[in-house]
Design a protein that fits this description.
This protein has 226 residues and is an all-alpha fold. The chain folds into 2 domains: 154 residues, no CATH class; 52 residues, no CATH class. The chain has 8 helices and no strands. α1 packs parallel to α5, α1 runs antiparallel to α6 and α2 packs antiparallel against α3. It is rod-shaped and about 95 Å long. The chain starts with 15 loop residues before the first helix and ends with a helix.
């Protein structure tokens, strides 16, 4: 089976990381509209960081068909953008002397369970409407940390696949090699098919084997394998 040069690109909306990033964006937009003053640069920075996380996952998935390197790079950009957003939420709590949920606290554990069970922005926005702003900020922090973990796993899988299968340049090289081998196979078959009898066929086959052995030895010497 011939190697496909252009790999199938996945639907980014099916990615768990994209759906969770979209939920983070929806919640962040809602939070900033209500609790950060218009004209405050932090508002634009937070919304843009949330959007960058979501959009770079989508763009990386779209680029996967032709460039594994671009997919990995954009996924890393998404991860970095959400780290920036995480720091903004933590700063919002800190400068207002609000509590950030501690590891093992009942609030954090409850939100972690909800974050694992839901990836719909509307679900979290509806929750936020009945909670105080410091609770909403903590909700967003939990979701961002879960997303960071998922993106780390996604990046590890992408890097592993790149090492094993390569990108488009490696696939093009494999496809060219397979095409040359296929052409060589046909030429050998045609030459054998010209034999007039069984004796001539056996002699031609032996000559070919000898030629292949000589070529293999020459390649091995050139590569330093003998």
């Amino acid at each position: 089976m011939a190697t496909a040069i252009i790999a199938n690109s996945g639907n980014f909306k099916n990615l768990l990381t994209y759906r969770k990033a979209e939920a983070i964006y929806d919640l962040t937009f809602w939070f900033c509209e209500r609790y950060i003053a218009h004209g405050d640069r932090t508002k634009d920075q937070m919304v843009q960081a949330a959007r960058s996380g979501k959009q770079n996952i989508a763009e990386g998935s779209a680029a996967s068909a032709t460039s594994s390197e671009t997919e990995i790079h954009l996924t890393n950009v998404a991860k970095a953008s959400l780290k920036e957003l995480l720091a903004d939420y933590e700063d919002w709590l800190r400068v207002r002397d609000h509590r950030q949920w501690e590891a093992g606290s009942k609030e954090l554990e409850a939100m972690r369970r909800l974050g694992r069970a839901h990836n719909d922005g509307a679900f979290f926005v509806k929750m936020a409407e009945t909670r105080p702003p410091e609770t909403v900020a903590n909700m967003a922090i939990v979701l961002i940390k879960q997303e960071d973990y998922l993106l780390a796993r996604q990046l590890a899988a992408l890097e592993k696949a790149f090492k094993e299968k390569g990108g488009i340049r490696e696939r093009m090289h494999t496809a060219r090699t397979e095409a040359r081998a296929d052409g060589w196979d046909k030429a050998l078959y045609s030459k054998l098919d010209l034999a007039k009898d069984a004796t001539a066929l056996a002699r031609t086959a032996q000559e070919m084997r000898s030629a292949i052995d000589r070529a293999a030895r020459s390649i091995a010497r050139r590569k330093g394998w003998q």
